[in-house]
Design brief:
The chain is mostly helical and about 55 residues long. Helix content is about 80%, strand content about 0%.
Length: about 55
């Protein structure tokens, strides 16, 4: 399991690699990916979403 010092080191390395401006963009992309994964797990399809939006 990761402890606090390891998490801090990982966050610092990510900040050094990507910079502060790129982090929010990466998080948005990750959030979209998680949402799509959950939708797929629940059996939601694009067709169901389009049907729901049109009503």
């Amino acid at each position: 399991m990761l402890g606090t010092p390891e998490i801090i080191i990982i966050v610092v390395v990510i900040l050094l690699l990507f910079g502060g401006k790129k982090i929010p963009e990466l998080m948005r992309g990750m959030g979209r990916g998680v949402k799509e994964f959950k939708d797929a797990q629940n059996g939601d399809t694009d067709q169901k979403k389009e049907d729901h939006k049109s009503n």
